[in-house]
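Human: For the file, kindly provide a plain-text protein record giving the amino acid sequence and the backbone structure tokens, at your earliest convenience.
Assistant:
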Amino acid sequence: MNKALLINEIESLPLDLQKQVADFVAFLKFKSLRTPQAEDLEFSEEELAELDRRWEEYEADPESAMDVNDFKRMI
């Protein structure tokens, strides 16, 4: 799909849906800037072992996991 066709498609939508498209585009841009691609990540053997340990700990007791909002406040 070329840009002109895409623009025409978006412009043919009702205004509320155009806003949703704009929000989605903003989300995609944010995601692409903030999230490294999985294949770009490199972990040492020690880091992989720690990730495995944490995953096993979570699987053994999922209720012990930190609340996502608590985690966000930490970073």
About this structure: Residues 1-39 form one domain. The mean pLDDT is 85. Residues 10 and 51 are 43 Å apart (CA to CA). The first helix runs from residue 3 to 11.
